[in-house]
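Case study.
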Amino acid sequence: MKTSDHLPTCSSTKTNITILIILLAVASIMPFNRVIAQNSNNFTIGTTEAKPGEKVTGSLSVEAGIDEATFIPFTIINGAKPGPTLTLVAGIHGTEYVPIITAQKLAQQINPYEISGTLLIIQIANIPSFQERAVYYNPIDRKNQNRVFPGKKDGTISERIAYTLKTEIMHKSDYYIDMHGGEVNEQIVDYVYYCANSPKPDICRKSKMLAHAIGNKYLIPDDYNAYSDSMMSEYSEVEAFRQGAAAISLEWGDRGIVKSEEVEAALQGLKNVMMSIGMLEGTPVMNDHPVYLVNEQSVESAHDGILYTFVERGQYLIQGTRIGYTTDYWGNMLEEYLAPISGVVIAVKVAPSIKQGETVFRIGEPRANADE
Ligand SMILES: [Zn+2]
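After joint prediction, the assembly is written out as follows.
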């Protein structure tokens, strides 16, 4: 009978399937054993250690000094295969939420068995500013976290956070991306600062490569020769560069708004960077035609007062265009602001609160080539 005729065949197929499943199971284990043997380096931050193939969370202590203590949360994803170390830092500023959410999601998504090398993710570098939703300045010492690098071991809390990042994180990084965005009071375009010139051409070239892999529309070349060794680096990515990492800083999102499509684009950009440095398998898509912004100019407020602005991020303005004004608290005009050059609006304050000396507006000239 057909049915019984088929029985031996079915039975032998089942046996074959069982053997196949066992073979597949063995095969799926074998590459793990093989790749674990390839990366023998444990990765340690503070007292937290990740073995090859492990994803471990931890936090760095910033001990109390002349002001209170804090901590820096992080995830180490130590790849099963050897490769470079990529460090991502979010939350240097407290209300830059797209990078903070992106960092948390990426840490959850990446499997250590998928990567070559080590991915170190700092979800929030500046916990006091995040907790207080504090714009620009740490609420404890009133300092801008991204103007105090390399920091001081015995300084105020912002300086001790910077010192901790420098001594525990930066020198262990081959690549370093400092992720910022528009704080709750500002519009800003998605741009990248990268190394365009430096006495370290090899690391500089890698910084440039990161900038073209991340996918942001606007790139701003930065001349690292301008930071002499006797100067403070001030900025996180400049300090990381000095510590030997190919470093960039970038902006994602504005006004503190978290749009899911912006987080998704940021995640794709970071995964593309991981491909470009050989950390993740796949062919990276390089942004060969970004808009370079050069000759950046900024306009500062000469007064405390109430700010009105009329322009949008990314808008092209002709030199002399009226971009806003500040009144006193009773509504009397104090000063007007005009575009100092023709160019693209990089950033503009949109909250009415403005203080003397704060930047109201930034503009840059667009170029098709960085060297024009
Ligand atoms: Zn920032």
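Observations recorded in class. The pocket of zinc ion is lined by residues 92-93, 96, 146, 180 (CB under 6 Å). Residues 1-15, 17-37 have pLDDT under 50 and may be disordered. We will return to this complex in the next lecture.
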